[in-house]
Amino acid sequence: MSALILHGGAGARRSKNYDREIVHMRDVVEAMKVRLDRGEAALDVAVEAVVMLEESGLYVAGRGSSPNLDGDYELDASIMDGPARRPGSVAALKGFKSPVRAARAVLDHTPHVMLVGDGACQFAAAQGLETIADPEPWFTRAGQGEDNHPPGTLAHGTVGCCVLDNQGRLAAATSTGGVFGKMPGRVGDTPILGAGTWADHRAAASGAGQGEYFMRVAATAQVSWRMAMGASLTDAAQAVIDEIGELGGDGGLIALDAQGNIADPFNSQGMKRAWLTTGGEIGVDVFGR
User: Fold this and answer.
1) I need a labelling partner for 34 at 20 to 30 A (CA). Which of 51, 176, 183, 242 fits?
2) Nearest 5°: phi and psi at 84?
3) What amino acid positions are annotated as catalytic residues?
4) Mean pLDDT, rounded, for 66-92
5) Quick check: 268 and 147 in contact, CB under 8 A?
6) Pairwise CA distance, residues 10 & 46, whole Å
7) Which residues have a Cβ under 8 Å from the Cβ of 211 and sit 6 or more positions away?
8) Residue 51: how many CB atoms within 10 A of its CB?
9) Are 90 and 106 in contact (CB under 8 A)?
10) What is the pTM of this model?
11) Are the C-beta atoms of 247 and 259 separated by less than 8 Å?
């Protein structure tokens, strides 16, 4: 029994056409279904799904990221392997094509949870991760014009994936270029375990929204904590988004439990997402519930 759910960000607005993203998200799910069917581990599948989302240039992560106020691209990512709660994370990474691969390298090749800034870049280089020769032709700035926030607010975009493999293991991965027009050095929820990404034996979750609010409520870990107190996955995930909304934030999250149940609440106009059920059905949506 395997399942997954992914997201391409909660900044969608109804005035924009998402046909390309819908086709691409379905393609990613279909590719990951092949991997799951042949027995690959949840963590490997979650990372590879996010790599595909980063490489597409269609979302505010990887190639689709926007620069900060100094014109630099500082990218964040994290992953978490549920069974052992093993994480890896990078923040303010510059000059590398796949932040989520850098996060995986932190998990695999260091005793640490997170590397940031110059240290993260030096480590990624030592690991031989693929660099960006020239930022301007590489980055597509796909998210420009997507957010539905007035100037001066936290307009956002992220990608993520939660996976349950056929051995019952859960994992999550998240990657982002951060909010638009961010200050240099700004780090949001995406690389913070328990805020933007979480996976344990109960649930996996990935956030998509105004990261400052997700950090204030420990959004993704809170899903599992609420389940430990008896809430269903659906109720737990919705309660987290409701709490973020009460604080004035917006966004959404995707979550998956050990039984393959899926949740995807959001309070923004839309959230790009796609999923694979335990019965093998694939779905894609942006604005529906």
Assistant:
1) 176
2) -110, 0
3) 158
4) 94
5) no
6) 19
7) 154, 156, 158, 176, 178, 179, 188, 189, 190, 195, 196
8) 22
9) yes
10) 0.94
11) no
